[in-house]
Amino acid sequence: MSTKVRLGIIGLGQQGGAYAKFITDGLVPNMVIGAITDTDPAKRQLAAETYPGVAVYDDYVAMLDSGDVDAVVTCVPHYQHPEIGIAALGRNIHALVEKPAGVYTKQVRELNEFAASKPELSFAIMFNQRNNPLYQRLKEIVDAGEIGSILRTNWIITTWWRPQGYYNSSEWRATWGGEGGGVLVNQAPHQLDLWQWICGVPKSVFAKVSYGFRRDIAVEDEVTAVVDYGNGATGTFVTATHDMVGTDRFEILGDAGKIVVEGSRTATVTRLKQKERDISQNMGMDDVRRLFMGQLNMDDYLTTETVEFDSVWGGQHAGVLQNFAANILDGTPLLAPGSDGINGVRLANAIHLSSWKGAEVGLDFDEDEFLALLNEHIRGEGRYPERA
């Protein structure tokens, strides 16, 4: 068997171009570029000049049928990820879909079900932040119960400042019919994934969402969502594209500790020596007096650790590509199975649906109702076909 996977890159934009460079620079030693597809003649010419000897196509189906590729990555608008994934898997070609897996759960579920019928093929999603050693370590800490049962989670992620010119750069950008939404489907899918990957999938959500709040766009540029995990635990998620200063702060409070992450770089992990409620119950009045006088020695009750990792730009993406190829070649477990992609799409859909209805929405919402309301927004734009 070959020791290198021939990857077909569908879409030579910013992401596709970056992946091609990672491969040719040797950052993905078990992968080569098998072919490149782009509908833009200028991108095809660029591909031919930059990667001599690599086949270039104007149609991804022709590339899939060419025999030039063992696997593909879908660097195309979000709506197309499921259809291309299904087309590849249907031809026994491994598929790595970009985030988000799609725009609405109905199409992503179809992709997942089709992939499940092809268990011999590798199906992954580009959740490169799962390759971030900081978040891997935090998941280990939470999964091991080191901070106890989760009581509350909060993520403020507003480091996505985008000026109006960004939205004006492409006709499809920030439209319901072309992109499928705003900050939830473009900038924040990694955090929506990590939040659920580490803390669990919530049962319901209530959201206040502003559409075209500080930008001349139809889709959301400001989101505040409150989730209920179903056991008394709650969480909040705040994101926006109009905060020039920006905040990235992720907190996980457990009944035996707490994690605070700043800037997705440094985490402070506090572990209580007993569960918080036991400390509370066992504290005598002398200790309470010392607490109010600022004389309580907190080292008697907890320990604090700082967790920090340097992450080289591009290393996480290249690592996902390398892991995907390793899964194809020798069965190495996937960092991000493609089937996990539905979780972030489902939560984004539920946030939109809650804001449209002005009500709390379960994560088991009616997918047809969501799609009908999405199509209402697409019809209102009058520029794109409705979705089925």
Automatic annotation (TrEMBL):
<dbReference type="InterPro" id="IPR055170">
    <property type="entry name" value="GFO_IDH_MocA-like_dom"/>
</dbReference>
<feature type="domain" description="GFO/IDH/MocA-like oxidoreductase">
    <location>
        <begin position="135"/>
        <end position="259"/>
    </location>
</feature>
<dbReference type="InterPro" id="IPR000683">
    <property type="entry name" value="Gfo/Idh/MocA-like_OxRdtase_N"/>
</dbReference>
<dbReference type="InterPro" id="IPR052515">
    <property type="entry name" value="Gfo/Idh/MocA_Oxidoreductase"/>
</dbReference>
<feature type="domain" description="Gfo/Idh/MocA-like oxidoreductase N-terminal">
    <location>
        <begin position="6"/>
        <end position="119"/>
    </location>
</feature>
<dbReference type="InterPro" id="IPR036291">
    <property type="entry name" value="NAD(P)-bd_dom_sf"/>
</dbReference>
<keyword id="KW-0520">NAD</keyword>
<dbReference type="GO" id="GO:0000166">
    <property type="term" value="F:nucleotide binding"/>
</dbReference>
<dbReference type="Pfam" id="PF22725">
    <property type="entry name" value="GFO_IDH_MocA_C3"/>
</dbReference>
<protein>
    <submittedName>
        <fullName>Gfo/Idh/MocA family oxidoreductase</fullName>
    </submittedName>
</protein>
<dbReference type="Pfam" id="PF01408">
    <property type="entry name" value="GFO_IDH_MocA"/>
</dbReference>
